[in-house]
Design a protein that fits this description.
Elements: E1 9-17, E2 26-33, E3 46-53, E4 59-65, E5 80-86, E6 89-97, E7 100-111, E8 116-128, E9 133-140, E10 145-150, E11 153-158
Antiparallel strand pairs: 1-2, 2-3, 3-4, 5-6, 6-7, 7-8, 8-9, 9-10, 10-11
């Protein structure tokens, strides 16, 4: 793992699990800049790193994203960043805000043919804690469908600009 962490960065949190179905443990990690927070506007940056384990107890780098996660200290009172591996899927969650908040969850699955991680789902929740209102938008990139829940109203549509004949975004291309 240490071989894949760039100079000036450190592992903030990591999880292990099988991401490609070969029975060998893989790693998903959140990296953080190893620096003091001297900048009044931006804290240390974060990055997502995904490694596939090999039969000879080594790892291969298959995904890096430095645009997805908010910097440490940039999320406000409700700042939260998490990563999990569930059923061969990397699940990345992030919350920011205070009275009003945003809570996003991205799901990435390894595509063996493409040898890359592909976005298969995105849930975005925007809410107001004082008013008790929230809107949840769930996009399923496997089906191309989007569901929006606002109060008791639920609507469905297709994901703008997405057709089932094209691939969903790759892990490296998804931004916050």
């Amino acid at each position: 793992m240490a071989d894949f962490v760039p100079k000036g960065w450190k592992v903030d949190f990591q999880v292990s699990g099988d991401l490609n179905g070969d029975g060998v443990p893989d790693i998903a990690a959140i990296l953080i800049e190893d620096k003091l927070d001297n900048d009044a506007y931006d804290g240390p940056k974060r990055a997502l790193l995904v490694l596939l384990g090999t039969d000879n107890n080594k790892f291969a780098l298959v995904g890096v994203n430095s645009k997805l996660l908010q910097c440490k200290g940039c999320g406000g009172v409700k700042e939260f960043v998490d990563i999990q591996i569930k059923k061969n899927v990397v699940v990345v969650s992030q919350m920011s805000g205070s009275r009003t908040y945003t809570y996003n969850t991205w799901r990435f699955r390894y595509d063996k043919q493409l040898q890359r991680f592909v976005l298969i789902g995105l849930d975005c929740e925007d809410g107001d804690n004082v008013l008790g209102k929230k809107t949840i938008e769930s996009s399923n990139y496997l089906t191309g469908l989007k569901t929006i829940r606002k109060g008791n109203t639920v609507s469905s549509s297709t994901i703008n600009g997405f057709t089932s004949s094209q691939h969903a975004p790759f892990l490296e291309d998804v931004a916050e």
